[in-house]
Write a structure and sequence with these properties.
The chain has 239 residues and is α/β, with parallel strands linked by helices. It has a 6-stranded mixed beta sheet. Strand 5, helix 7 and strand 6 form a beta-alpha-beta unit. The longest helix is centred in the N-terminal third of the chain and has 15 residues.
């Protein structure tokens, strides 16, 4: 029997939802369940700092948790390091601090509320613990387990895993979401928010829009079979 592996998609600062997701996993798999977090811990929701601290503490206590870096985590890092607010991948040209991207909510969770961009940057450099910044910067971009490949956004079809770019792993949509052929693994990802997690045959998109107030769905995989964890137990994810 294949050991179960659990996945939690884009949390986006929703610490109350994270509590519920972890409780569902605990009921299904116990306190030592192996969990992969698919990235985008921060932005939009009110408790990005608490989410980071919760996951960091879980790892520090020895729980078998793998945490991937998402594009929102990267934008937070880039802002801390360089003050960057504009990103080429954001075609709308929105600033990271715009409510639709949610950076201001992340800074507010650290007590940073300055309206001026430069002042906010300097305040964030003082307010965000260096341990948080360094932990985020060290997060991997992918995790392979058996027939599963966990990434934040997706992969470039046909490109060897060791040649996938960070940009694709954290940002890709076009060329991945519309690819119908098989991959060497079942790709489990978030990044593209749906109304409900969906199994597409060659990939599973678990992001159901927690960043917009919708449900954060923890999922369990045994091999390439997957189940959502509901309040009443497992619900099969079918292609």
């Amino acid at each position: 029997m294949t050991d179960p592996i659990y996945a939690i998609p884009d949390i986006h600062g929703q610490n109350v939802m994270l509590d519920d997701a972890l409780a569902r996993i605990d009921r299904d798999g116990g306190p030592d369940a192996r969990i992969v977090f698919l990235g985008d811990l921060v932005d939009r929701g009110p408790d990005s700092r608490a989410v980071i601290e919760r996951v960091m503490q879980g790892q520090a206590s020895g729980r078998p948790w793998t945490v991937l870096r998402g594009n929102h985590d990267q934008m937070f890092l880039d802002f801390l390091d360089t003050g960057s607010l504009q990103f080429a991948q954001i075609k709308s040209g929105l600033s990271w601090l715009d409510p639709r991207l949610g950076g201001a909510a992340t800074l507010a969770s650290y007590g940073v509320t300055e309206a001026d961009d430069t002042a906010a940057w300097h305040a964030a450099q003082r307010a965000v613990p260096e341990t948080h910044r360094d932990w985020l910067a060290g997060l991997p971009l992918r995790f392979e387990a058996g027939g599963l490949l966990f990434v934040h956004a997706g992969i470039r079809p046909g490109v060897p895993l060791d040649q996938q770019t960070p940009e694709d792993l954290m940002w890709i949509r076009e060329g991945f979401l519309d690819h119908e052929g098989p991959h060497p693994w079942l790709v489990v990802h978030g990044h593209t928010a749906l109304d409900w997690p969906q199994y597409f045959g060659n990939r599973v998109d678990l992001d159901a829009g927690a960043g917009y107030g919708r449900t954060l769905w923890p999922t369990v995989f045994e091999g390439t079979d997957g189940w959502l964890l509901t309040e009443k137990g497992r619900l099969a994810l079918c292609p």
